[in-house]
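User: Teach me something about this protein's shape.
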Amino acid sequence: MRKFTFGIILCSFALQSFAAQEVLDGFYYKTEQAPVGNEWESPENLALNKEQPRAYIFPFESVESARKVLPENSTYWVSLNGDWDFNWAPDPDSRPKDFYLEEYNTSSWDKIPVPSNWNIQGIQSNGDQKYGVPIYVNQPVIFKHSVKVDDWRGGVMRTPPENWTTFKHRNEVGSYRKEFDIPQDWDGREVFISFDGVDSFFYLWINGKYVGFSKNSRNTANFNITPYLKNGKNTVAAEV
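Assistant: First, the predicted structure itself:
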């Protein structure tokens, strides 16, 4: 069984092409000004404004570049990997709720590399753990539960035994921000942002505008961010 992890695994943006297809259950498309705030609690509610699953392909500007296969060989793809502004909170109530606003000052925040696991990044040279405890499990579930039908409906925020790691850190929240530029020769084209793995739920904002959310930690999450972009500097914010 995999190690329980948190963090953004990979992020990039690119010009993409998505064919129309039947909308899967749990995927919703509408304009919302802000999250409701409890979307992460529902197992049936999988995504808002996230593109439907598709083959893992990228656009290239020429046959020559396409023969190099990897997306970094395309002028239509730019990596957002690297240092992001980062804030860690042990539970949702402690998170910075307005961090996605353009005027919000993150200069006092830490820098964290993307891709990374924030629990591991938080381990200090003296052994202190700045961003929670890395949780390794073989069989047991890390949140309090009973082995009975529909017990999951009680949620992960229930009080576990005091000797459990999750007694103190009930449901960690990582807030990420990064500035980026869109290449000038992309003007007039659709632009999509891609997260190649986020554990396990996140909200997304571009330039202070709410885009949507994604749930499903090991599948790529693509969003069309064209309507939210502007000339010059842009800001992406993700609450994990």
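Now, about its shape. Confidence is low (pLDDT under 50) at residues 1-9. The chain has two helices and 14 strands. If you'd like, I can walk through any region in more detail.
User: That's plenty for now, thanks!
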